[in-house]
Amino acid sequence: MTSKVISILAVILLVLCLLSGGCSSIAPAQNLKAWKDLIKLAPEDNTKKEVKKNPEELIPAREKGESISIKLYFAQADKEELVMERREITRTEGIARSTMQELLKGSDNPAYRNVFPEGTRLLDINLKPDGTCILDFSSELRRLENGTEEKQMIDAVCQTLAQFPAVKQLVFMIDGREIDIIKGEVDFSSPIKVSQ
């Protein structure tokens, strides 16, 4: 008899569960939809997401498009001395790179001569925290004619970059490789000091 009672109680319990739990298929879908709507309406957690800004937004408004006067040094056409030329360029974060690009372009003045062989490009420039500025040039730099041109090029780069107090010394590279000599007048095996 006890097994009959247990069986009857189990059947009654099963019927109650079915009747109370989920006979209606419409209500759970509405509840589920309501939870999805609540999740969509919940405010976003901004502490976990990284805000991406356009690089233009990182430059203060007063600096956008602002120009800066830089000093560039070129060789005189028939002399060993260097002459300074002022040029206005747009202020950028990598001002030393922009300045070196301007130096590589040369001067519009026919009395001045570019200190770099034609076609020389700046491949990279990197300023270390200790003030060492690493300059990586293309292989055309090896086409300097003689030791005098080599010294003029070094002096022009040193004087041009000396306007930036963070630059203390220069390391020259060609095509990503350290160099010891180009024409033999200057020892490139150790950093070249910049006089400010």
From TrEMBL:
Coiled coil: none annotated. Pfam families: Germane. Residues 1-29 form the signal peptide. The keyword Signal applies. It comes from Syntrophomonas wolfei. This is GerMN domain-containing protein. The keyword Signal applies. Residues 96-183 form the GerMN domain. Keywords: Signal.
